[in-house]
Task: inverse folding
């Protein structure tokens, strides 16, 4: 028996990169997958890869910023695959680079809307369904700027810090029914998003350190976060509900340290250094 047999997982941004890897890991663990992204062709390819390995996948092309479509889509998932046990919000946008006065306002707000509103929309539908059934897990992906300043990526950073706090707030309203929310930082992964940062003129101007990071070999394989999320889905890290886990973590060491992390209120978005 596989660790995720008889479970249903929803993965957003599942058409490529980290999201595709997350979906593949869930399927290999035995889960039935719902794949959400705007690109129909990309999620169809992810579904094909899952099915070629004997898994089951339902591709749904929709925009997570459209609340009505999200509600319709998740209702269809439950009709077609069964009750949702795991929701992974992997969708994301980072297209506005530079000081805020150099950023196109619509692009800046678009990054925030996709990242934060999209996560709100999926959680708003999935969380009460999980609560009504007495269990479930939600994983929200965060990233650069979540816990530190990111001057030339302010829209992305602001949205990811907001998702971290949103994850904590959500978890505090759902854990009484064994619905646990987690934030996961996959680390610096070479994706279509980072290719835009590397190759656009704005990216070259305002994110000049990025090529050097990749040249130094700082390129976290997407399967690190995917493997972590598969273990979250199986319940290994339930004591860390409401907290941040990272793709670079040594998962065995993290599992050993969970009690200490909780006791220290670690891996959380908190003020420090206040008298």
Result:
């Amino acid at each position: 028996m596989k660790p995720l047999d008889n479970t249903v997982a929803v993965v957003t941004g599942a058409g490529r990169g980290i999201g595709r890897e997350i979906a593949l890991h869930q399927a290999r663990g035995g889960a039935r997958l719902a794949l959400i992204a705007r690109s129909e062709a990309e999620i169809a390819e992810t579904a094909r890869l899952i099915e070629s390995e004997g898994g089951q996948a339902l591709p749904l092309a929709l925009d997570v910023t459209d609340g009505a479509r999200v509600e319709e889509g998740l209702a269809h998932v439950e009709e077609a695959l069964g009750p949702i046990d795991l929701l992974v919000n992997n969708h994301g946008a980072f297209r506005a680079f530079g000081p805020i006065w150099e950023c196109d306002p619509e692009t800046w707000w678009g990054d925030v809307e996709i990242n934060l509103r999209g996560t709100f929309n999926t959680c708003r539908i999935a969380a009460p369904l999980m609560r009504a059934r007495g269990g479930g897990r939600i994983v929200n992906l965060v990233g650069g700027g979540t816990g530190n300043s990111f001057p030339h990526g302010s829209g992305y950073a602001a949205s990811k810090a907001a998702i971290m706090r949103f994850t904590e707030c959500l978890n505090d309203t759902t854990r009484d029914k064994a619905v646990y929310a987690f934030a996961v930082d996959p680390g610096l992964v070479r994706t279509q998003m980072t290719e835009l940062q590397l190759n656009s003129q704005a990216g070259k101007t305002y994110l000049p350190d990025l090529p050097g990071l990749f040249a130094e070999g700082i390129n976290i394989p997407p399967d690190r976060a995917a493997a972590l999320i598969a273990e979250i889905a199986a319940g290994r890290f339930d004591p860390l509900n409401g907290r941040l886990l990272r793709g670079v973590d040594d998962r065995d060491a993290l599992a050993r340290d969970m009690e200490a992390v909780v006791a220290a209120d670690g891996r959380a978005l908190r003020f420090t250094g206040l008298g």
About this structure: The chain has a mean pLDDT of 95. Residues 253 and 261 are 11 Å apart (CA to CA).
